Amino acid sequence: MLLELLALTDVRNYAELEFTPVRGLNLLIGDNAQGKSNLLEAMAMLGTGRSFRTTHDRDIIRADAGAATISGRARSRAGTLQLACSIARGPGNVRKRYTVNGGPVRYARYLGRAQVVTFAPRDLDVIVGPPSRRRAFLNAALSQERPAYYPALASYTRTVEQKRALLRAPEPVDSDLLAIYDERLVRSGAELMSGRRSYVAVLSSEAERAYAAWASDGPLEVRYAPNVDLGPEGDADPAEAFELRLRAARPLERSGRRVLAGPHRDDVTIRLAGRDLSIFGSQGQQRSAVLALKLAEYRVSAANAGESPLLLLDDVLSELDSLRQSAFLAGIADVEQAFVTATTAPPEIAAAATYRVVAAELNRIG
Amino acid sequence: MKDRVRLCSRCFSLTEEDPCTICTDERRDAQTICVVAEAKDIFAVERTSAYRGRYHVLGGLISPMDGIGPAQLRVRELLERIGREEPREIIIATNPNAEGEATALYLSRCITPSGTAVTRLAYGLPIGGDLDYADEVTLTRALEGRRAL
Q: How far does the CA of residue A161 sit from the closest CA of chain B (Å)?
């Protein structure tokens, strides 16, 4: 994936910007709060339609502006792609629109056109944060990888909300309606579980290999920990297992008025030498593990798509020691294009182009 | 003008005369009832000129999040109407989203014991579209809903 042109209008601190990056490593140098991360966020939004920094889309619109527009031209194996994503202030929530090659498309059809892998300091939460952060990591990766995943996730999430409201309503629970919600949860939930199971399987072997390449205190183990028991080998049919689990959980769900069973309560366990990394790991080990996970995400995406995804590294390389920095850079040596932000140029990096970012202005300096 | 618009006592569509002109039109097939969420959905189906049956407006979709259960919709009225008019077929034309699907399944469970056939609008490919450009979910649904030539 090669981003040939990025154009921003009223995005964060950028009033207007046209950026024509080069192939290879693009290094963005600048002090804090000048617009480095905003640029990376915009690139990620161009690919995924979502920000990796905020869930409040209105934050992305420049102060006093009515709408933000991010557009760009990318070249992939499939050919040249014109993408645009715009966010407009509305009376209630914001309105988002997506276009591919000039034609408007729904979000589900926008996703996955341009594959993006992002690595930012807050990704450490994937290791030390609550299970929801690990599910969010899986959801973001799988929504790009598997076309059926995002529609299943949207339908599943909505149905869980409806089922929860039904269980909590003051009037007696309509058993027919509850059964219908469960039936629909099984349908969409099975897709989530099988997607997560196969994705974590390939991700874990890549992550274990990456970790072992620069540290000997492993092995790093990454395992899918589904809420629905998929059997001792983890290979049970997700739909059948989910149905059984729902039947068993029903009395408790009704009396407790909670939605207890299903992949909305999934987790991923991450262990180092058999011990839970989030509890027993040192900060250095946790950082190495998230680095290994991100490298694995990049490699899996590249293998699945048959071309390297756009790689966005937001202020993470400078935090690594030189051993891990070079190990990571060696792992992404085949990247077609990457964007790296830093306050000062990391010594290990061989950038194809270096830009200085000052007050939302970009100047090439090397 | 506003004072004269009310709900049809049979199908609950918006009308100036009760029953509405669709319910009283003898050329229309009384054996088929198309169930829609809102009155505006009738205009969408009517624009096709492909449907010659009658309608029933639910007044929304089942959504516990918004405090809407079957009791808040005209489900009981639909079942009474089926008992009274004994139609051959009920066509459920709700949107293909989470609420529309759940409502369709719910109605199908309620109606099936009466012996009346229940059908659902097919999911399919847009006319003039290319298979190449169809998203996987739409294509999967279109495959599931395929029919003999």
A: 7
